[in-house]
Amino acid sequence: MVTHSAGILLYRLDGEGGVSAFVAHMGGPYWANKDEGAWSIPKGELEDGEDALDAAKREFDEELGVLPPEVDYAELGTFAYSSGKRVTVFVADGAGFEADAFVFGEFEMEWPPRSGRTASFPEVDRAEWMPLARARERVVKGQRPALDRLVELLAQAR
């Protein structure tokens, strides 16, 4: 069965025509010393029968410990990873959203591998606004088309 996730891509415009995206660095030992390809939009798996936007908002809150901004969201599209996983991305102008006061959600996994011990790790370990070009270099490959689509839509709107 194909995994289906949903996430929120917030963007904001600066006064000089630049665009920033809000992204999060993935937590846990695998990602700890990685930067390029180790960032993601806040997202997570849909539960059975769950509306994709509701899932995206729930996951935003679970990963960051803050509610997503109360703004209008538009479906940017559903993007497939090379693994077959699909992520439906919702986009919104997050101009008033401050990147602080996070309480990152946690997950448990066996660590170190094959040790029989379980350890807790944050789902993400930091989140920040960054220029779109830098965000595109840093997000996982499967999410780069979502950033490209955002660029296209913003160019059409101008």
From TrEMBL:
Hydrolase among keywords: yes
Stored InterPro entries: NUDIX_hydrolase-like_dom_sf, NUDIX_hydrolase_CS, NUDIX_hydrolase_dom, Nudix_hydrolase_domain
Stretches assigned to the Nudix hydrolase domain: 1-152
Superkingdom, taxonomy of origin: Bacteria
Keyword Membrane set for record: no
Keyword annotations from UniProtKB, A to Z: Hydrolase
PANTHER family named in the record: DIADENOSINE 5,5-P1,P4-TETRAPHOSPHATE PYROPHOSPHOHYDROLASE MUTT (PTHR21340), NUDIX HYDROLASE DOMAIN-CONTAINING PROTEIN (PTHR21340:SF7)
Protein name: NUDIX domain-containing protein
Organism: Microbacterium aquilitoris
